[in-house]
Specification:
Distance between the termini: 114 Å
Order of helices and strands: HEEEHHEEEH
Number of helices: 4
Helix content: 40-55%
Strand order of the largest sheet: 1-2-3
Oligomer: single chain
Strand content: 5-15%
Largest sheet: 3 strands, antiparallel
Radius of gyration: 34 Å
Number of strands: 6
């Protein structure tokens, strides 16, 4: 009869030979490089980008990964909010390092569009004395966007103006400007 000790030696030897065979086979299949087999796809990217997207209507959106946000207050994912803040800090640092200037051919000649629109709006207000709006102005804000100032309240978009009659008047001013009404 075969001793139990001999059976253990045989099983242990077979196990060692099997492991060595598996290692050699795995090394051969990986092309001798170790690691992943040849032709394996690259690992998926785990970093998320932050982008500013200008929509066709001129509004800006913040895109984090595949999610777009119109306002910072819409971002409820903590990691996405941190990425946006980090990107903003990096942009501020870049702006501090250099003073951006527009090429000469892209600079506007004459009054800015907001001031041109304001002149048309003031003309419309004079044409409609029955409207109660006297303290309405269109202005260029420091960031280059247009602001709508009604009394002491400021709006960035016509859609944000609460009064429908005033919204219609603003839209008429924009239409006249777009149609090439003489721009002072």
């Amino acid at each position: 009869m075969v001793s139990l000790e001999l059976v253990y030696y045989f099983a242990g030897g077979a196990l060692i030979v099997g492991l060595l065979f598996g290692i050699v086979l795995g090394f051969a299949l990986s092309g001798g490089r170790g690691g992943k087999p040849a032709g394996a796809p690259p690992p998926p990217r785990t970093e998320t980008g932050v982008a500013m997207i200008r929509e066709p209507d001129g509004t800006w959106r913040i895109e984090v990964g595949k999610q777009r946000y119109r306002h910072l207050r819409e971002i409820h994912d903590h990691r996405a909010a941190l990425l946006v803040l980090e990107a903003m800090q990096a942009l501020q640092a870049m702006l501090r390092e250099s003073t951006p200037t527009l090429p000469a051919e892209s600079r506007l000649q004459g009054p800015a569009p907001a001031e041109q629109l304001d002149r048309i709006l003031q003309e419309l207000l004079r044409e409609h004395p029955e409207l109660p709006y006297r303290a309405v102005r269109l202005e260029t804000l420091p960031d280059g966007t247009m602001g709508i100032l009604i009394g002491t309240q400021r709006y960035q978009r016509v859609e944000d103006v609460p009064d429908p009659e005033l919204r219609a008047l603003l839209q008429e001013a924009i239409q006249r400007w777009l149609q090439g009404s003489p721009r002072p």
